[in-house]
Amino acid sequence: MQREKRREILEAVGIFAVVASLVFLAWEIRQNTAVVSGQSVNELYDAVREIDLIILADRELIRITEHTADTVAELTPAERRQYVHYLSLMIEVWERAIARESDGLIDSENVDGWHIYFEDFIRRHLTQEIWQDIRWNWKDPALHLRVDAALTGEPASSNR
């Protein structure tokens, strides 16, 4: 009788330990997901900041990157190459944001802000002609759809 009671107590303790372990594991996974999400957002901020710092260190780059889609025709061939490289760097950051969104590493509130930021950037700086020349650099159809929509003025919500 006493052995049976002891066995029941040990089973209950074992079940409690398993449940507690599962609760702890779920909490750890949630914490880890939050950390990874924060790191993903910080990585995007760091990438944009790094591009800005490179530009700010060179007056000529500042002048070139101040151009918009309306004035890009005024650039010399060498300046146009620098301008296109700048656009490519920014599009690569957007591609990373889209990838992090697909992987579930950035929450919808953060990713929506990034989409608004980059859609505005594309509308101001990219031309259809330049996009047709460089779009082959990116294979992600989601990025292509977003850039195309930004260039045509479609609302971002139509891409979701």
Integer average pLDDT: 86
**Largest sheet entry:** none
Order of helices and strands: HHHHHH
**What structural class should be given to the helix and strand makeup?**
mainly alpha
Quaternary structure: single chain
Distance N to C terminus: 64 Å
- List how many beta strands DSSP finds: 0
The radius of gyration computed from the alpha-carbon positions, rounded to a whole number of angstroms, is 25 Å
Low-confidence stretches: none
How many separate domains? 1
In short:
This protein is an all-alpha fold and 160 residues long. It contains six helices and no strands.
Question: In terms of topology, how is this protein built?
Answer:
Elements lengths: L1 H55 L2 H7 L11 H26 L5 H18 L2 H7 L6 H12 L8
Helix pairs in contact: 1-3, 3-4, 4-6
Describe, in plain words, how this protein is organized in 3D:
With about 160 residues, this protein is mainly α. The protein has one domain (about 40-160). It is built from six helices and no strands. It has helices at about 1-55, 60-65, 75-100, 110-125, 130-135, 140-150. Helix 1 runs antiparallel to helix 3 and helix 3 runs antiparallel to helix 4 (about 110-125).
